[in-house]
Specification:
This protein has eleven helices and twelve strands. The chain has 330 residues and is of the alpha/beta class. The structure holds ligand PBG.
Length: 330
């Protein structure tokens, strides 16, 4: 006997829920601000802060205006930030992505100076910098995998030398982790981490981000490089490939419609696992809350704790500042 009731005896699981102090003590999953990473859109130029219409509560900042925003995030205890560049000029090769004085390296240098201990991550992709809006360079109308790799590697080296702790390739090009790892090591940047957007799905939930970052593809879609939303085993192959190529952190993106993928990745791999609670998942909650159709604080808690319960160690979320404040209040 293990001290359990005899078969046939009615279970009394409600004993576990009678009082908040008991529920709190027995809670299986606890959230901490340090697990949250805040995405930040960085604009070219100076003196600009603009609200993102599709993402209430989120703004885009020029590098010189980031300080107070990031200071608030740090004060709330968030684990780090991930930067996305929104350049004013684009070209077919996405040269702004790997220019030394580009929008992301400029912001990284400014933040590194003001916040020496902050974990700074930088997204590595071409879509915000190309006139066609695709994540790699084109050969005809096709996104050319192997011609894109050296450009992503160059971008990663620029961001790392500017002071980013983590570079995060999100282009879904095969071999991007290996190309970046080799380039970093070759440039004496062996301490920089690579967080790979390993299982990144071709999702409808990126729409608000694409408005904020100006990265809508001008023709076609991303389905020839981002994953088909109906596949799970293939996600495990993507993660496995990135592990072999030397990723330090792997990611599943988006989070909410892919909790099974997060859960399986957690049980199969021992690397730190990130999940990206993407723009559409944010805007959906914000829109419903604004209409009074749901309680925002309770919904945000449920979303974030669900992603963690599924197995994520890190959650990239536009709710980071607000949620970290709520967590501090208890
Ligand atoms: C760049 C990138 C995207 C997102 C993160 N990195 C957009 C895309 O792939 O179209 C989406 C993030 C979000 O929706 O919050 N490739």
């Amino acid at each position: 006997m293990s001290g359990r009731s005899e078969p046939g005896v009615q279970s009394r699981l409600r004993r576990l829920r009678g009082r908040e102090s008991v529920r709190r003590a027995l809670r299986e999953t606890k959230l901490h601000p340090a697990e949250l990473v805040a995405p930040i859109f960085v604009l070219d130029g100076k003196g600009t802060v603009e609200q993102v219409k599709e993402m209430p509560g989120i703004s885009r900042y020029s590098a010189d205006r980031l300080g107070p925003h990031v200071a608030r995030l740090a004060k709330a205890g968030v684990g780090g930030v991930i930067l996305f560049g929104v350049p004013s000029r684009k070209d077919t090769m996405g040269t702004g992505a790997y220019a030394r004085d580009g929008v992301v390296p400029t912001a990284v240098r400014a933040l590194r100076k003001e916040f020496p201990d902050l974990m700074i991550m930088a997204d590595v992709c071409l879509c915000e910098y190309t006139t066609h809006g695709h994540c790699g360079v084109l050969s005809g109308e096709k996104v050319d995998n192997d011609r894109t790799l050296p450009l992503l590697a160059k971008a990663a080296v620029e961001y790392a030398s500017a002071g980013a702790d983590v570079v995060a390739p999100s282009a879904m090009m095969d071999g991007q982790v290996l190309a970046i790892r080799r380039a970093l090591d070759g440039a004496g940047l062996g301490e920089t981490l690579v967080m790979s957007y390993s299982a990144k799905y071709a999702s409808a939930f990126y729409s608000p981000f694409r408005s904020a970052a100006g990265s809508k593809p001008s023709f076609g879609d991303r389905k020839s490089y981002q994953m088909d939303v109906a596949s799970r085993r293939q996600a495990m192959r993507e993660i496995e490939a990135d592990v072999k190529e030397g990723a330090d952190i792997v990611m599943v993106k988006p989070a909410l419609a892919f909790l099974d993928v997060i859960s399986e990745a957690r049980s199969r791999f021992d690397l730190p696992l990130a999940a990206y609670n993407v723009s559409g998942e944010y805007s959906m909650v914000k829109a419903a809350a604004a209409k009074g159709w749901l309680d925002e604080k309770a919904a945000v808690y449920e979303v974030l704790v669900g992603i963690k319960r599924a197995g994520a160690d890190l959650i990239i979320t536009y709710f980071a500042e607000q949620a970290a404040m709520w967590m501090k209040e208890g």
